[in-house]
Amino acid sequence: MIFGKKFGVVALAALMVAAAPGVAVASDADIVREAQDRAQIEALMWDYVRAIDSFNPDAYVSVFTPDGAFGATKGRDALRKMVVDLKKSQDDRRAKGEQILAMHHIVTNASIEFVDKDHARYRYYWMTVFGGAAGVEPAPRVAAVGRGVDDVVRVGGKWLIQTRNVAPRD
């Protein structure tokens, strides 16, 4: 893109918008803030996945608002209990001799839509995979797949999950 290299992406975007009558022009500061917000939301969702896959209840609840919800499970105390119970279930099964494979949540095709400067909707496809590295028996197994729509909000300058919906009806 010769024009973009010579004039810069922001300048190109401003020229394109200026050529379209009636279209609001975002300031450089707005563009930078949105880019930073996108990066912070992506990091938030990485932290979410790592927390649940490592069964870390403290890390898990830290990515939610105090009244945050995963489906019908609402509030940090209930979310913490959900992770503790999940880990206990796995530990109990392991103690009975079951082979419990590592859990991996994979999120793909994510899209971030800003509702306003402090609210965003995070849409994605997900899958839960159990297993280890390639070539290690048993082979990895896809346990579930779906799509999700989460609402994230900025609280005290930090993006957090307000609602996580891994089975939306829309």
Task: Briefly summarize what is shown.
This protein is an alpha+beta fold. It has helices at residues 2-7, 9-18, 28-53, 57-62, 76-95, and strands spanning 64-70, 73-74, 103-116, 119-130, 141-155, 158-164. The chain has a single domain, classed as Nuclear Transport Factor 2, Chain: A (Roll).
Q: What key phrases describe this protein's structure?
A:
170 residues, Nuclear Transport Factor 2, Chain: A, six-stranded mixed β-sheet, 6 strands
Q: What is the secondary structure topology, with strand pairs?
A:
Elements: H1 2-7, H2 9-18, H3 28-53, H4 57-62, E1 64-70, E2 73-74, H5 76-95, E3 103-116, E4 119-130, E5 141-155, E6 158-164
Question: Overview of this structure, please?
Answer:
By secondary structure, the protein is of the alpha+beta class. It has one domain (35-164): Nuclear Transport Factor 2, Chain: A. Helix content is 40%, strand content 34%. It is built from 5 helices and 6 strands, in the order ααααββαββββ. The chain has helices spanning 2-7, 9-18, 28-53, 57-62, 76-95, and strands spanning 64-70, 73-74, 103-116, 119-130, 141-155, 158-164. Strands 2-1-6-5-4-3 form a 6-stranded mixed sheet. A hairpin with a 2-residue loop joins strand 1 (64-70) and strand 2 (73-74). It is globular, with a radius of gyration of 20 Å. The relative contact order is 0.13. The model is unreliable at 1-7 and 15-19 (pLDDT under 50).
